[in-house]
């Protein structure tokens, strides 16, 4: 059995009951820079997404998990995206939704659980993430888990009339 349980949180699959939580995240314009979103998502589209979220990572090429506390409150999401079986790698994205739940170790614990799952159960060789140069909290989160900055993409993202640089970070399973 795959254990995605930590001390304070656990990772679980999306459920139909998560539609409001998912909608709040996907439609929060303050978060669009992180997800490179440009338009809101309708309830219909999100319900369709949830209906297909049962697809396995080898088919969907992504895996989205809810970060939940042990009182079953959803705190955020952690994603694997661009799953590449041939080259044994995937991208990672993470979000703790509410500011009051940040800096409490939930993201760190979720990332540790996901890294272990990826290297132990999915047999991935590497994980990577893309982080805006000014997102110091995320850079610290990932580098503290062993990710290394391997490149800087100049003027990579355009947000609020400004081009921003973005770091590429990698964690290779040695």
Automatic annotation (TrEMBL):
Sequence ranges assigned to domain N-acetyltransferase in this UniProt record: 9-169
Pfam families: Acetyltransf_3 (PF13302)
GO molecular function, one term: acyltransferase activity, transferring groups other than amino-acyl groups
InterPro entries: Acyl_CoA_acyltransferase (IPR016181), GNAT_dom (IPR000182)
SUPFAM superfamilies: Acyl-CoA N-acyltransferases (Nat)
Keyword annotations: Transferase
Protein name per its UniProtKB record: GNAT family N-acetyltransferase
Species assigned in the record: Gelidibacter maritimus
């Amino acid at each position: 059995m795959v254990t995605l349980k930590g001390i304070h949180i656990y990772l679980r699959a999306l459920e139909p009951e998560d539609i409001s939580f998912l909608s709040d995240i996907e439609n929060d314009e303050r978060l669009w820079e992180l997800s490179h979103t440009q338009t809101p998502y309708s309830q219909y589209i999100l319900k369709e997404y949830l209906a297909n979220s049962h697809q396995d990572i080898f088919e969907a090429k992504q895996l989205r998990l809810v970060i939940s506390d042990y009182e079953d409150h959803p705190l955020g999401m952690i994603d694997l995206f661009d799953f590449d079986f041939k080259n044994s790698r995937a991208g990672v994205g993470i979000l703790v939704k509410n500011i009051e739940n940040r800096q409490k170790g939930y993201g760190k614990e979720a990332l540790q659980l996901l890294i272990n799952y990826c290297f132990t159960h999915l047999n991935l060789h590497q994980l990577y993430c893309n982080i805006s140069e000014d997102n110091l909290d995320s850079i610290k989160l990932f580098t503290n888990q062993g990710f290394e900055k391997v490149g800087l993409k100049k003027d990579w993202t355009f947000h609020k009339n400004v081009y921003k640089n973005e770091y590429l970070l990698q964690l290779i399973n040695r």
